[in-house]
Design goal:
The chain is mostly helical. It has two domains: 55 residues, no CATH class; 67 residues. Helices cover 53% and strands 12% of the residues. It is built from five helices and five strands; from the N terminus they run αββαβααββα. The chain is extended and about 65 Å long. The N and C termini lie far apart (49 Å). The model has no long low-confidence stretch (mean pLDDT 89).
């Protein structure tokens, strides 16, 4: 399973429709009182009950789509191959395997194959981002103190 395959940037028309739909959906969401409201598909007149949280997620998807950003949805507990996880992190598979062996990211082994949970990869990515920001702030403070950085 390649989670990053077939992710395309939305067209200008899709962006425009997404923005219109997002604005309309946000207004409707403000007035909803049920946990599982019914929506109607105009073309078929079919009514469908949808969990409120799913409609809120749809609003987020529409907003991001309207900004021209591609979207991919992956269930949280999904297990990934080491190659898919490396692709998500933007590193090589051997580097990812090193991270797994060092227990930086949790994994399970099925036979000879390692599997990592999507949520664990994302948690690692967030930890690294926070660490990078912390180091960047330290560098900036050191530059300020040494007079190399004008405020």
């Amino acid at each position: 399973m390649d989670y990053l395959a077939n992710i395309n940037k939305p067209s200008k028309e899709e962006q425009k429709v997404a923005m219109e739909s997002y604005n309309a959906l946000v207004e409707v969401l403000k007035s909803l009182r049920k946990d599982n409201p019914e929506i109607e598909i105009e073309e078929t007149k079919e009514k469908i009950r949808i969990p409120l949280n799913a409609l809120k997620l749809l609003a987020k998807i529409l907003k991001v789509t309207s900004q021209g950003k591609p979207i991919s949805i992956v269930p949280i507990a999904t297990e990934m191959t080491t190659q898919a996880a490396a692709d998500l992190l933007g590193c090589s598979r051997p580097h990812l395997v090193k991270l797994l062996e060092e227990r930086e990211i949790e994994y399970t082994k099925i036979g000879k194959h390692r599997r990592v949970k999507f949520e664990d990869v994302i948690a690692y990515k967030k930890r690294m981002k926070a660490k990078q920001q912390e180091l960047l702030i330290k560098i900036m403070k050191a530059d300020e103190e040494s007079g190399l950085y004008d405020i």
